[in-house]
Structure formats: C-alpha cells, structure tokens
Amino acid sequence: MTAQPQRGLRFRSPRCHTIIPRLSNHAERTTGGTAMSGKRYSACAAMPWLSALACCGLLGGCRAHCRPQGELLDQLIETERAFCRAAARASVRAAFLEYLSDDAVMFLPRPANGKQAYAARPETASDLRWRPSCAGISAAGDLGYTFGPWEFRRSRGQDDADAHGHFLSVWRRQPDGRWLLAFDSGVSHQRPDTVTEEIELRPARKRGAQHALDGRELRAAADGLLALDRSLGDTAATADAAGRLLPVLDERVTLFEEARLPVTGRAAAGEALRAGPAAIEWRPLHAAVAASGDLGY
After folding, report:
1. Are 289 and 295 in contact (CB under 8 A)?
2. Measured between alpha carbons, how far is 295 from 213 in angstroms, rounded to an integer?
3. In whole angstroms, what is the distance from residue 148 CA to residue 188 CA?
4. Which of 142, 171, 230, 251 has the lowest CB atom count within 10 Å?
5. CA end-to-end span of the chain, whole Å?
6. Which residues are CB-contacts of 275 (< 8 A; sequence separation ≥ 6)?
7. Burial category of 124 from C-beta neighbours within 10 Å (exposed 0-12, middle 13-18, buried 19 and up)
8. Is 224 helix (H, G, I), strand (E, B) or coil?
9. Under 8 Å CB-to-CB from 136, ≥6 apart: which residues?
10. Integer Cα distance of 295 and 284 in angstroms
C-alpha cells in the first residue's frame, strides 16, 4: 500500500474549497450584532463544511496593553513549529497523537475523531514537512488558527517531494496553557514556484477580552454562527454560489481549492469561485466560538 500524506491529501474531490473570509457587516447583523469575523474551510462540496471566524489585523498596531496577546500568538506559532519538529524527530503518527486534542476533528475523508484515527494507524516511514505562513488568534487568547505549505515524501531521506499542498488548522488553548489541535485539514496542489519564509500575523482586532462571554452568550454566538452557515449553504446550493458567497468575503480572504494554489484577496477568490461549479452544497454540523466572541469555527 502506498503511504499518503496525513496533512493534506485526505480528500481528492475535483472541487474542494477552503475559504478564509471575515464576515461582512451584513453577516455580523445576521449573527445578532456580535463583532465576529470569519473564515470558512471544508473537505469538499459533497462533504460537510466547517466555518471558522478569524479576526485579522497587524501586530504592529498593538500597544503595550495587548502584549500578552502577542506573546500567545508567538506561542501558537512556536507550537506549530514544534509539531513539525516532532514529526521529523519521531514520526508523523506520534506527532499528531501528541498535538491533537481528544475531540479534534479531521476529514478522513468524512468528519472523524482525529486522535482515534491516528491511534488506529500503523507507523510508517513517510516524511511530512510543513511550516506556518499565517497565524491568527482570538482576543481572549483561547482560540487560534494557522495555515501554510506542506510537502510529503514516501520515505525519509529522499530528496524530491512526492506531493505538495497547504494545511489549515484550528487550535484551542488548554487550561494548562498548551495549544492543541481542534481541527486539521488541507488541500494538495502542484509544487509552488516560489516559497516565502515570512509569517503573516493576524492578532485579534479587539484589544483584550474586556467582556468574556458567559455560557449563555457563548451558546447564542455559536448558534448564530451555525445558523448563518446553514443559510449560506442553503442559498449557495441553489445557484450562483459565487454571488451568494462574495458578500461575506473579506478583502483579505484566502481561498484554498483542491489541485490549485491558494489565492488571496476578495477579487481573486471571487474569480476562482465563479470559475467553479454554479452550485456548492454543504451542511454545517457544529460551531464553537472563543470566549471573546471574535473567533469561531
């Protein structure tokens, strides 16, 4: 049996989309006025979609009072790097078992408990390498996300990679301060012509968690996000998916599509969506939000 990369080639549908938008004002009103921004990603049009909210900004705009959030963002990036080092030092399986939360979700190809799936897998000699090119975090510092390129080799020590792609992960900060994966997925594509070592930082726009949502507010925010995603899925499944999705895409949206390099920017994402199927159907199954209400999935 040929080994497959565990962090990207999980689904091979010809139409697999991962969208990372921030919600428009219209979308914020739909969720009851909660100051949320959004990112969307999915396995493919025929599988359930998950949506995540991402608050994006520039770290340089922070003042001294938001330094702790910057430190947490640095910790998240270092966790992603340590995750990659663990895969190189031990094995891909061992690394995922160390960094997946007990209830982490992966598409294999349908939604599944990632930790249980990896525990049932045998060890292999495959080599999976990746690095973060973008990282974002909630104002409360309890939820974050990363994405970036990966490359896969069937055996360690070989020079040329057998496959390339991008991963997308949602991280949850644990009570002991560790970051663990809540969701992990990706797409495969051709080898990129250029690779940058820079990391785009996206700390929350909110400056600190002045008001932490209580249990009722958290449930309401998650329900609002789920309702919005269901509404988008229902309308995009009828016709003109691009037209339905464009109003909720931010100017800095990143679109991941199976077999294609990622594109960034609302105009480029819209063009890619218009070139795709007229109708896209998905069914959200779960939603959760950060304690600060500005990030969710």
Report:
1. yes
2. 12
3. 12
4. 251
5. 34
6. none
7. middle
8. helix
9. 54, 55, 56, 73, 144, 145, 146, 201, 202, 203, 204, 295
10. 17
**Two tokens at 115?**
């930790």
Buried b (16+ CB within 10 A) or exposed e, 28-67: bebbeebbbbbbbbbbbbebbbbbbbbbbbeeeebeeebe
For residue 74, is it within any domain? Answer: yes
At 57 the three-state DSSP class reads coil
**pLDDT truncated to tens, each residue of the chain (297 aa)?**
334 455 543 332 222 334 333 333 322 222 222 222 222 233 222 222 223 333 332 223 333 334 478 899 999 999 999 999 999 999 999 999 999 999 999 988 889 999 999 999 999 999 999 999 999 999 999 999 999 999 999 999 999 999 999 999 999 999 999 999 999 999 999 999 988 889 999 888 765 555 789 999 999 999 999 998 898 888 877 778 888 888 888 787 888 888 999 998 899 999 998 998 888 888 889 999 999 998 888
Measure Cα distances from 136 to 70, 164, 202, 210, 244 in Å.
10, 23, 4, 19, 26
**Side chain identity, residue 93:** R
Provide the token pair at 17: 């989309």
How many of the other CB atoms lie within 10 Å of CB of 235? 15
Domain range for 216 is 17-274
How far apart CA 231 and CA 242 sit, in angstroms, is 14
Beta carbons of 222 and 287 less than 8 angstroms apart: yes
R_g of the chain computed on alpha carbons: 18
194 within domain boundaries = yes
**Per the domain annotation, does 286 fall within a domain?**
no
Could you give the count of Cα atoms lying within 13 Å of 214 in the half-sphere of its Cβ? 1
270 CB contacts (<8 Å, ≥6 apart)?
Answer: 242, 246, 249
- 41 falls within a domain: yes
What is the domain count for the chain? Answer: 1
DSSP assignment letter at 293: S
